[in-house]
Amino acid sequence: MVYSFYNSNDFSSPGYDVSRLISPSLHDYGASYGVLEPSHALILESEKIEQVNNGSEDARVGKNYENSDAKALAALKNHSEAERRRRERINGHLATLRGLVSSTDKMDKATILAKVVSQVKELQRNAMEASKGLLIPTDFDEVEVEPYEDHRSMSYKASICCDYRPEILFDLRHTLDALELQLVRAETSTLEGRMKNVFVYRCCKGKGDNNNTGACQALARNVQKALSRVIDKASNALEYSLRASLPCKRRRICLLEN
């Protein structure tokens, strides 16, 4: 038998738990048999939800890391493949250059390139020397007027190079007639749609006269300006013909009968 003694003052005080008076062991009965108070159950439930959310967040972060790693690996693989192709292309070009020059067995890449460049420049000089006596049109339009060696009188040589067009010959003849030049020699050559005209004209008799020299130089400037106008006229005509040859859309008119 259990006897309980209590004080009336304690019983009447606010917040006093009556269950302790009846049976002190009833206060912790629920906890001992696994029955929790509602506040404790809510706290545990929220902790479980938080753990689940943290787990899903960790899984999502891990998946993002895996995707980023896969992308980085693919980019690295593509870069390596591009670098391999670039090296193969360079090695192929170097093999071609080795076949153009001699004694390249023990040369590095820089030496091979330097020797090839030197050889190309030498070939260009040889080609220019070989074509000095030939009348070959160049790939660009040009007008040149320069003194010409003539022991009997002061002469000039004028040359014009441009695209070949039939009307240019007429314009050249008209220009030379207007300048009233005393022509000594004239040559014309064409190559792959290009034309070059060279003519030598006599400026004045005798040498050493300052007045004659100044007059000849002034005439040479006039000749150069006149020939430049011929090229400009031909270029404008060519541009106009190209524009005119382009197909143009005609305006359609629809007639409706009332």
TrEMBL record:
Record keyword Cell cycle present: no
Molecular-function GO term, any one: protein dimerization activity
Domain BHLH: 74-123
Entry's localization field: Nucleus
GO cellular component terms, semicolon-separated: nucleus
InterPro entries membership: AIG1-like (IPR045847), bHLH_dom (IPR011598), HLH_DNA-bd_sf (IPR036638)
Gene3D superfamilies cross-referenced by the UniProt entry: Helix-loop-helix DNA-binding domain
Protein name: BHLH domain-containing protein
